[in-house]
Amino acid sequence: MEKTLVILKPCTIQRGLIGEIISRFERKGLCLAGMKMTWLTDEILSEHYAHLKEKPFFQRIKDAMSVCPVIVCCWEGVDAIHVVRQLAGATNGRNAQPGTIRGDYSMSVQENIVHASDSPETAAIELKRFFNDDEIFNYKMNNLLALYAND
Ligand code: UDP
After folding, report:
1. Which atom of ligand 1 is nearest to the CA of 49?
2. Minimal-distance CA residue to ligand 1 atom 22
3. Per-residue exposure over 14-53, b if at least 16 CB sit within 10 Å of its own CB, e if not
4. Ligand 1 atom 8: the closest Cα is on which residue?
5. Beta-ladder partners of 32
6. Burial level of 125, CB count in 10 A (0-12/13-18/19+)?
């Protein structure tokens, strides 16, 4: 089992899509291990988007990510990091495949609905960045056999 971080971005909250997006992950069969609403600071966003520090849009994405609170989620499942990235789709909503979250709900490269960790290393760092240990819950859903059979 892997755990991964998803952030429902301010555009998702503003557009009233919280339930829609959470249900995408839920109905896929991922297990919700943590969830909270939080208002991201410039400090945490500078750390989170440090890989984009030299880009001209660095300040713009930080501003966009702090116009209102976001919802941070921890989703768990077999290969959850890859599965969630596949569900999210390509960064630019206009290029993302229909059927993916960004492909179905976004017309923008910036306002692209969700953030999703892109590797096991990043997921571990990002979950620590946004959650305290006691905000992540370890439990098993009782439909695991139906979800994974003998995988
Ligand atoms: N972004 C942007 N312009 C770009 C590339 C990225 O505004 O040309 C924003 C977009 O919101 C994206 C975030 O910066 O989700 C982080 O970019 P990254 O390359 O890490 O893409 P992701 O992993 O989110 O698909």
Report:
1. 16
2. 91
3. eeebeeebbebbeeebbbbbbbeeeebeeebbeebbeeee
4. 109
5. 75
6. middle
Is there a domain that residue 141 lies in? no
Residues noted as catalytic: 115
- Tell me the pTM: 0.97
In a domain, 148, yes or no: no
H/E stretch holding 2: strand 2-8
- Is residue 10 within 8 A of residue 62, CB to CB? The reply is no
Question: For residue range 58-115, what is the model confidence (pLDDT) as tens digits?
Answer: 999 999 999 999 999 999 999 999 999 999 999 999 999 999 999 999 999 999 999 9
The number of domains in the chain is 1
The answer to whether 100 is a known ligand-binding residue is no
Containing domain of residue 115, as a range? 2-136
Interatomic CA distance for residues 66 and 6, integer angstroms: 16
